[in-house]
Amino acid sequence: MKAKICVTLALLAVPVLAHAETPWWATPTLQIGLPADLSRNVTQGEDVARNEVYPTVPDSVPEIIRKGRNGNGICMGCHLPSGLGQPQSAPLAGLPEAYFIRTMHDLKGGDRGAYRPNMVDFAKGLADDEIKAAATYYASLKSAPWIKVQESDTAPKLFVATREIPAAVPGGGDMPLGIRIVELRTDLVKPYHPPGPAFIAYVPKGSVARGAALVKGGGGKTVACTTCHGANLLGAGDVPAIAGRSALHNARQLFEFQDGTRHGAAAEPMKAVVAHLGEADIVAISAYLASRPPV
Predict the structure, then answer these.
(1) What is the pTM of this model?
(2) Domains of the chain
């Protein structure tokens, strides 16, 4: 409670910015009208990897994670068998059990939205014992190096395929990066075959240094992330780790605190933290966090 009060008081004197919705680049969404071969190549590669890896997942893993309900909503389908996640889905490995349970109940109760509506639908169908089993399992997993951060003026031209998978256009060359994050797989099937890095995040030049200043000292716009997330940004108590996680995912969470997608009592401390951050600030913070060791 003291940390929450300190965060709020430290920001009272700073003017609040007006915020729009989460920017398009932070929410990878299937593109309509893609050439059939582009999407098919990604889907087929995914299916091959899944068919290789899924049978090796032991029966000791909770059934809701391995099989979902009636063959649908398999946790590891989006969050991967490792639990290390992807740009379009949260990293779950190592999440505090209490945080995981609270998140699922927030999704069920309407205090937290998700840019992929199937996550909300899936959460609403879960029984308490299934949530508990998944929370205990994911809390038992360890995070691992999973993402490489590369500062650049450009990024590969991309498209978004089925399952909201961002992928580089074969032979498409580069495009100006601007003020955003582009996060792609290092190889189509690498997320199914740890260790990483399985993803590379392209971020604007200077982002990591700028993000370090904001994360460590606030830069007059926010407070140090270490206040709640621990000295090494690896979490404290039921507050989750944020180091070494997907840059795109972390950015999306900050935007969603701003635009109200994440609300309710559990989100209140973060509302004050993000209230004065601009888009470039969030890009920089997310770049720095992703560059840090995850363990």
Answers:
(1) 0.91
(2) 2-29+144-291 (1.10.760.10), 36-140 (1.10.760.10)
